[in-house]
Amino acid sequence: MNEKNPTLVLLHGMGATAQVWEPLIAASDWPGRIIAPDFRGHGAAEWHKRYTLGSLASDVIDLLDHDERYIVLGHSMGGGVGLALGSGFFGNPPLGLAVLGLKIIWSEEDLIRIPKMASKPPKIFKTRSEAIDWFLKLSGLIGIVDPTSSLVERGIRQIEDGWTVSQDPSSFHTAPRHFLESLGSITEMKIPMAMALGSADPVATVEDHKLLPIETPVVFEGLGHNPMVEDPHLVWNWLLKFASKLS
Question: Are 240 and 246 spatial neighbours (Cβ–Cβ below 8 Å)?
Fold first, then answer.
C-alpha cells in the first residue's frame, strides 16, 4: 500500500448496509483503498450472538493489515464504532475519525424501547416491496432512497415464508448502552476528529454536541440523518478538507 494514500474505511449506521455509501463512493476520487463492510447482523454479513461496539470494531480491524494506515468515516452507529477504533484498544487506531449524525442524547424511552426491539423476532412479509419499505424505515432511508434503488438489495432477503430484512433484531443491543459508553471515551481520544450533521437530522443536534469536548460540528443545511445519500458531493468535500489536515 502507498504510504501517502491511507485506506478509507466507511462504516454504516444501524439497520442499513454498506450500500448506503455507494453514492459517496461514486462521487469520490480517493487515491487509496476503500473498505465499506456490512456490519455483523446487517446486509450480507452473518448474524452473531454478541453485538457491541467493540465486537464491531474488532471485525473492522480484521479487514486491515497490521500496520495499515486508515481514516474512518462513520455514520451514526458507525461513528460509535469509529470511536471504539479511535481508542486504540482493538488495534492500530485510525489517523483520523469523521462522524456523521451521531446520536448523543438517549431518552428513557429509548432505553426501554430499543431492547424491546432487539428481543422481537424478524417481521415476515408476503411481498418484496413490503420488506423494502420496512428496511427503509429501519435504516432511516424512507423518503430518501427509492424502493427500486440498488441500495436496498442487501437490506432484504427472501425466506421460505416470504420476505424479511437482513438485519438481525438482536443487533439493536449495540445501542444505546454501548453508545453511551463510547461517548465517554471522546475525552481520551488521541486522534483528530471531525463531526457533522444535517440541520434536519431528527436524532442529532448541534446543542447535543455541545455536551462533548469537541469543536462545534459542521451543519449541512437542509439535510437529514443520511447526508452522504442526500448530498454525497457536499459530504465528500467536507471529508476531503478534514483528511487534508491529517499527516
Answer: no
Give the separation between CA 164 and CA 128, rounded to whole angstroms: 8
Residue range(s) in the chain whose domain bears CATH number 3.40.50.1820: 7-108+170-243
DSSP class of residue 19 equals G
Tell me the per-residue pLDDT of 104-132, one tens digit each, with 9 for 90 and over: 888 888 888 888 889 999 999 999 999 99
Q: For the domain with range 7-108+170-243, which CATH number is right: 1.10.10.10, 3.90.180.10, 3.40.50.1820, 3.40.50.1370?
A: 3.40.50.1820
| Predicted pLDDT at 2 | 45
pLDDT of 241 over the 50 cut = yes
pTM as predicted:
0.94
Angle at 172 between CA 169 and CA 178, to 5 degrees: 155
